[in-house]
Amino acid sequence: MPMQVSWIEPDNLRDLVGRLQDPARRASASAVELHTLPDETGLGARELGIEDGDLWLPDDPASALAVPSVRGGDRLFDPQSAAEAAHDVVIEESAEVFEEARGPAVQGTELDLIREKLRAIRERAMGAGLLAHTNAAEAVVESPAARTVADEGLRAPSAPSAPGFAADASVAPAGAQEPAAAAADPGAQAPPHSLLPVQSPFAIAASEAVQASGAADPGFPAPQGAIAERLEAFAAWADGRFFLGDLLVVDDHGDILWGDHAHAGLVLSAMMACKAALRSSALGAAGGATVIEQPISATRMLIVIPCETGYGTLSIAFTRDGALPAEAVRFLREALIAAVETRPVVPDEKARYGGSAVE
Amino acid sequence: MIAVATASQKGGVGKTTLCVNLAYSLAKRGWNTLLVDTDPQGAVGLSLARSTREKRGFYDFITSALDLADVVLPTRLPELSILPAGQYDACMRHGLVAADAPARIRDLLRAAELRGHDCVLMDTAAGLGGLTETVVKACDYVVIPQQAEPLAARSIPHMLETLARFRAEGAPVKVAAILLTMVMGDQEMSLRVARELRQMLPAELMFKQSVPRMASFLEASARGVPVALLKHNPPPEALIFDQIAAELEERTGLQREGETHHAHASLLD
């Protein structure tokens, strides 16, 4: 073989080409949820059962999240002072470790591109003044205990409150709601890691009452387990109560917090499109958290119920035959808020994670 | 709409010549094309008109709240618009907030889409650092012009490594392909480089067409026109960029996207 003039190692080149041609690996369901619903304790990934080997957690998530702009910034234009440069080197190194560790889990997917386009639509709507600016990041870091409820109107203050589920419990400090719920109906309080609400005779009775009168309380006892368990319990409860089948819980950025990812793409796209359209309408401008009811076939209807929680606006999306009664919408909202805002208490949390993370 | 950046580690490989001529070919093929010059040297503008040096452009857009319509220059070809580099030095004096650059570039792409552009072609400065990194990361595809000479070819692994890192960092940019440029048909070393690269790299990562080194490109630059406008009847080498445009359409899906909108018409009916 004649002398090679390009001095390129074929094996090296093959490896690089392979890395470039790899289809963007899809993030696992668990990994998707990490940055979409962090607990104030920073235990999001652990709660979701992600092993340490699957995903590297920075000691200080805030610094890790701040890295991209810092990296992009100092290297682009501005000359830095020596002190700033030294600081940036440290950040950059940690960023590379972080990116290297999380890389496979966050590579773009078609769904990500759809989300990005939907975000672009939202930003354009914001830019055009059709949509009020929201700050999801603030909502995420805001303590539920310190939060004032902006949408009291959603919660029908005069609505009757049955034992086991108080409407106010959804917005009260998490620690305060547990004793109240337990005192009201100890039997309905599910132990951590259980799905008992679906089987509960109380739940069945309440379901019948809702269907009969439309005024009874659903009695959702939010378990105190990890967020995934709480959402699973919520989904099971909602199915048992309202026969919703597969439902999705989605945050305001279109990231799926709960639901079957295999069927999520279409529902998610339709849902986000509906939301974008709604936001650009007069209803959206009025600021109300309006329930979307969009016919998707002769009989089926896509229903999206936005819920203001301590972690920002989450939406429950599902399909069913016909619209849902207003009371049922309210119950679903309150139950999701209760499920999301319940403080996670895993029995041996301190033993497993050294105790500091949950404080 | 698709956004395509050009990128190369080495300067002087023909990025600007490619961009100017490719943008012209895409526009002639019916795509509403916006050519954006992100190179502070403003080579696109210098290639086409003396007056662009004084005009506002890309750097003015990313440093102030300008409307894209205020800085885009129309051309005599309705499907081709140009965003020159603008006043880079003035913008540097006023201070660029580097952290804002990615968002402003996304704004630019959104604004271009809203204006109805089908394709945004972004010429970049040599290397993959600084603002070029931001530009490439924001694009859907990157075309890599690769000069057919040994020293330039040795930079390919570094280039691919950097692009792989961009993707690992979450950037959606895909490599459209590597384009051999400045191929000298009468120089054995240049031809050997071309052969070696085609042997080592998969066909889907290489444009079938390459760009030879020809005097007419120099002449076109001197006159400030795409090579297709050198003469009333375009010279044969102008077809090179039509071929590259056609390949780019296939590689990026621009063609399929277009086919959904345009019905086939019979020649006579």
Q: What are the SSEs and their pairings?
A:
The complex is a heterodimer of chains A (359) and B (269).
Chain A: H1 10-21, H2 29-34, H3 44-47, H4 61-76, H5 82-106, H6 110-127, H7 136-141, H8 174-184, H9 196-199, H10 201-213, H11 227-242, E1 247-251, E2 256-258, H12 264-279, H13 282-285, E3 292-295, E4 300-309, E5 312-321, H14 326-341, H15 349-353
Antiparallel strand pairs in A: 1-2, 1-5, 3-4, 4-5
Helix pairs in contact in A: 4-5, 6-12, 10-11, 11-14
Chain B: E1 2-6, H1 15-28, E2 33-37, H2 43-48, H3 58-63, H4 68-71, E3 73-74, E4 80-83, H5 88-94, H6 101-114, E5 119-123, H7 130-138, E6 141-147, H8 150-153, H9 156-168, E7 174-181, H10 188-200, H11 215-223, H12 238-252, H13 254-259
Parallel strand pairs in B: 1-5, 1-6, 2-4, 2-5, 6-7
Antiparallel strand pairs in B: 3-4
Helix pairs in contact in B: 1-12, 6-7
Write a brief caption for the model:
With 359 residues, chain A is an alpha+beta fold. Chain A is 48% helix and 9% strand.
